[in-house]
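A quick aside before the break. I want you to see a complete sequence-to-structure record at least once, exactly as it would be stored in a machine-readable document. Don't worry about memorizing anything.
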Amino acid sequence: MRLIPSLLLLLVTSFSAYAEKLVDAKIILPRSYAAPGQVRQIIIKTTVKKGWHIYWKNPGESGLAPSFTWHGDNYDIKKIHWPTPKAYTNAGILNNIYDGEVLFIADLLVKPGTKDGKIDIKADIDFLVCKESCIMQSVKVSSTIEVNSKNMIETMQIHPLLSKAMDLLPRTVAITNKDIKGNKFSLDLPNNLHNKELYFAFDEDGIVMKQGNQKEGQFNFTSNEKTELKGLIISKEGPSWRVKN
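That is the input. The structure line, written in tokens, reads:
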């Protein structure tokens, strides 16, 4: 279970009126149009002030994940794709964080039956931004997309920022041989993951890897609590892989 230390809560409360903008975000549309019933991927480009960080969907032993609240009747956000986080330790507390530029991808469905014309895409995003202290900051983002029910010519070219965002998403790896006992895990890794410094980021809120090592292609690690093997194998060189059970 994830806990927010009382000191962190005090710091968040004390700095709730912090005036400096520590995080900004905007919506970028790789395609400016969509047909009713069609799914489009949109990008939420987020910029975090140097020296500060925000959190992954499982923040780790403290912190809070960004919260997205979408406004609009003519579309649904079916899924948020979270880029690979970094492991960050401060005062013995392990977190999964982002800093600098962060590219979230959202799957936007234009509802069937939506009339042709422009529709507004709006969201409020709440971030816990941390350094020595932590501050809650909210960002409003908006854009418009053209709904067109007529047949439109699609280009095969991928928007460069969408291509960059997709490269930051985890790949999939199949683990054929694994041993799980309580909070102890042992995985036989495919050859492409041998001899890498690895970290396992659990999906479950508040669960983190406490100890880990790799020897002769076997990745052994423990978690702070008993949990399922669901999450990402992250290489400190950058790439990550979602474990496929």
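Two observations worth writing down. Residues 171-244 form a domain with the Immunoglobulin-like fold (CATH 2.60.40). The longest strand covers residues 117-130. We'll return to this after the break.
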